[in-house]
Structures are given as C-alpha cells and as structure tokens.
C-alpha cells in the first residue's frame, strides 16, 4: 500500500545513543538538556532568536493566542487543517473566515479589511502547503488596524522567503513537528517569536505558568515535550536538506508526468526556497476527483482530501460565512503520495492512473 505520506526514520543507532544517555541521566522531561540542545540547534538552523519546543502543533497555536492576549474576533483562513480554527475556538475567540486566493490557496489579503470590526484583535493565517502568505500585505493591514499576527506555519519548516526563514514572520509563528512533516520529532511543535519581551511569558505558558512552587504568574498549560522527542529532532535535523532534496525529486517527477491541460496546483510564491511538503492537485470537478481517488484506491494508493471540508462550512462554527473559492477548491483537491524513497515507478503508475481518469465521461 502507498499512503499519502510515510514517516522518515533516521539511523536507528544514532537515535538509540541519545536514548541510552537519557536513560542513564534519568531526566526524561521538564526542559531537559536534550530539549535545550534541540532548541539551540533549531534557532541556529532557522536563524531565529526565540524558539520554544512544545508538545504538538496545536498547543502552540493556543499558547500563541494566549500569549498575545488575543480576544474577540480573529480573522482566519477556511483552507487549513481544522486545528487552526479549533485553536481559536478553544481560546474562546470567534473565527472570522476570509476567502482564499485562487492561485496560492492562502488567505486573500485583499478581502481582509472588509471583515475587520471593532471586535477584531488578531489575524491567524496559514502558509498552506508551506507556500508563503502575502506577509507584506498582511503586515500593512495589521499595523493599520493594530492587530496581532500569528502564522500557522505547520507546513513551512525549511522554507525561506527573501533569504529569511518563513517562520520568522508575524508576531508569532507556530510549526508542527508531527511524524508526517518534513522535519519531525515524532510528536512536537514550536513557537517562534519576534518579541524578546515575550520570552519568559512563552517559557512559562508552556509549563503551567509557574516558576517553582511559589511563583504562579500565568494561566499556563502543559505544552512541554520530552527528551525522547527532542532526541529524534536532533538526529533528523542534520538530514533536512537531504530530505527536502529527495522530496523535490518526487515533486519534479509528478510535474513532468501529470496532465496539466486538465489539472492545476497552487502557484508557488516567488523569492522562496521551498520544502516540497505536499503535492496537491485540483481536478476539474468533484466527480472527476472521486473517480480518480477510487481508481487509485483500487491500486492500493491512498491519497488524501487535504484540505476538506472548507472550515467555514463546519456545523460547529459560530458564524456561517461564505467562502466560495475555498469551498470550491476543497471539493476538488487531492494530495498525492509524497515521501522520501517513493520509487519513480510508483510515481509513474500513480500519474498514469490519474491521467487515464480525467475525462468527464
């Protein structure tokens, strides 16, 4: 079976060496030495000053909202994984959905201002598939209306924009290090801050908000991660460039084999180094998409409807806001298998199946 993704596993012995050292110390969590080493290496790799390794890519979104004291309404995208909007709801804020750009699939900055009200305090945008949002346009809007900006950069590890890590934009960026991501720590995530004054606050918010047993300063949460997860990150981090290069080979193969007279995919932003996190394709109709998906599954190839459904259509959202571009693309998009080691023969077979089922009949 070929799944949409496959976890990259590094050299086992290198990981086990860390495990043995952790075992000997008996220090398993609570900001241990391996975690601190990973944070230092990630800062160096990304060229950022303030980074906090946490338990997963969802808790970091919640901590970011809490740290920036965002309340009321939050402008956000309907084309993302549900964790983006759920984090807003869990922090007792109201997601206000703004439709996406039909080319990049990111939130359309030209539509943001029309949705801003006196209750709006923040923007939470996703770099969809690791493709950068229009960060300059969003920054202008945020400054004009005194809004905080959080970027859900779950897909964006290793992406640079104009020579800077994409994770360095906004007031806070968050990243996911889940096992399916380009860089992973099995489970994990990170907060990246541009505000030195938030340093202590973020550190405390991820660890219940107290220092020692006497100083309780914030309504914190358990956002910590373990030494074992940090160890996986330290083994994987030196391999990221090779991982991205291998993913690019798969990406380029699909580019050369698929029928682009019928299909299309997001336009990758200029001035970036991309990480090839996903390979989404948009079909001419939902009917064709289903036909292709069924044909692939008959051959034990499992793509994913990523992202579906458009989040603004979920029944538990407090406001039903039409986002026709997002709703349309969500019905027709599939992410194809993409991972290190996917054989070219399988890429050819997947492409052949797709191309054979594109006709409307």
From TrEMBL:
Q: Do you know which CDD domains this protein is assigned to?
A: AHBA_syn
UniProt-listed Gene3D superfamilies: Type I PLP-dependent aspartate aminotransferase-like (Major domain)
Cite the GO molecular-function annotations of the record.
pyridoxal phosphate binding; transaminase activity
Claim: Secreted is one of the keywords in the record: no
By its UniProt entry, which Pfam families does this protein fall under? DegT_DnrJ_EryC1 (PF01041)
> What does the record list as GO biological process?
polysaccharide biosynthetic process
Residue positions where N6-(pyridoxal phosphate)lysine is found in the record: 181
Q: Which UniProt keywords apply?
A: Pyridoxal phosphate
Tell me the active site. 181
Family from the record = Belongs to the DegT/DnrJ/EryC1 family.
- Protein name per UniProt: dTDP-4-amino-4,6-dideoxygalactose transaminase
Origin species, per record, is Dyadobacter psychrophilus
Q: What is the lineage of its organism?
A: Bacteria, Pseudomonadati, Bacteroidota, Cytophagia, Cytophagales
